[in-house]
């Protein structure tokens, strides 16, 4: 385990470049095994989750090489192998191997996924989708075994109970080689869904409607990668740096941003009084003056992202006027960062899973724990603002989701290091 040590109170300024989207990458890497030819992914973030996915690929005799931000994956000689529970439990996105293996080899055995503990995130919609396509799903010995019929998967009409990103992506991967047409209704609309569809279509899949609530997929016999795919910028990383720049920035320009992906987040930040200039693919965040509290409610895209409710919390805590409220309608129990913020002097409470933020916080450095990726980002922003030294234990969680974070913060003028615990 690692810890992040921050000597806070240093104003940050300069330029930072956003990496490829984590939430795209963790689906695109498993999706690469659907190809019968080698795959090249560009703008891949240097995060621990990518290393974990590469380890899982090696279990299936899939060769990988990762240089700078280019990841090459050769699934030509893939072999069917049960994915070990230990490695699978290190990240939740390992469940994407279910759909990818089902689409490529007609069967998959995957341990129950792990990842961040932010409340119930059942995979029942994934399983119902696989079953609708004709697969048999068994839960045995803490593993899920999925098998297509001898004649292969068949197209189906699938109505999701809620617009789950994971279920939408998994069903897309399983159905691209199924016989006939698959229709996913109440599909998730996130930009990462569109990114996956573009990747698969460039390999020969026929997917229409990605980014809307109805996706139509015509099954094809095989997929082959012909061109490199560039992963979209990470909107959550970009939003985190916006919040960071607004709390302790002295003028920060954030490059490689698709601004439309951040519309709901930027609207809230600007409602608080933060001044931001934008051009084609960058944002300039001015030093913040007196800010006012706002109410934030998370919703599926294009609403306010659940992954940004924690990074915006330290920004709200710097406001001097009003009372702030955060309601996470997607993961109501995503509040484990609150006791850690209180250790740092935050004037904040949780009542019935609603986060109540009061003015008057002055952060003080102390030792806190990052229980998951975005909680870690929240504590990191607080630590950069704090008087004294902040030690964030379980900083591995931050490294799972934020591309070269220490290097980027140091370039902006922060005093941040990572050490082994």
Q: Give a count of the beta strands, DSSP E runs of length 2 or more.
A: 23
Give the number of helices. Answer: 14
Largest sheet: 4 strands, mixed
Q: Spans of 5+ residues with little confidence (pLDDT < 50)?
A: 115-120
Helicity range of the residues? 25-40%
Quaternary structure state of the chains depicted: single chain
Please list the strands of the largest sheet in the order they lie side by side.
21-22-1-23
Sheet-strand content, in percent, reads: 15-25%
Compute the gyration radius: what is it?
Answer: 21 Å
Mean pLDDT: 94
> Which outline best applies?
elongated
Q: What is the SS-derived class?
A: alpha+beta
Q: Terminal Cα separation, in Å? A: 6 Å
Give an overview in words.
This protein has 14 helices and 23 strands. The longest helix has 14 residues, at 235-248. It has helices at residues 22-31, 48-59, 85-88, 96-105, 124-132, 165-175, 191-202, 235-248, 263-272, 309-317, 337-343, 373-385, 396-401, 405-412; strands at residues 2-7, 12-17, 39-42, 63-67, 70-74, 107-111, 136-140, 143-147, 157-159, 181-185, 206-208, 214-218, 229-230, 249-255, 276-278, 282-285, 295-298, 324-328, 348-351, 354-357, 367-369, 389-393, 415-420. Helix 4 (96-105) runs parallel beside helix 6 (165-175). With 421 residues, it is of the alpha+beta class.
Quick summary:
By secondary structure, this protein is of the alpha+beta class. It has helices at residues 22-31, 48-59, 85-88, 96-105, 124-132, 165-175, 191-202, 235-248, 263-272, 309-317, 337-343, 373-385, 396-401, 405-412; strands spanning 2-7, 12-17, 39-42, 63-67, 70-74, 107-111, 136-140, 143-147, 157-159, 181-185, 206-208, 214-218, 229-230, 249-255, 276-278, 282-285, 295-298, 324-328, 348-351, 354-357, 367-369, 389-393, 415-420.
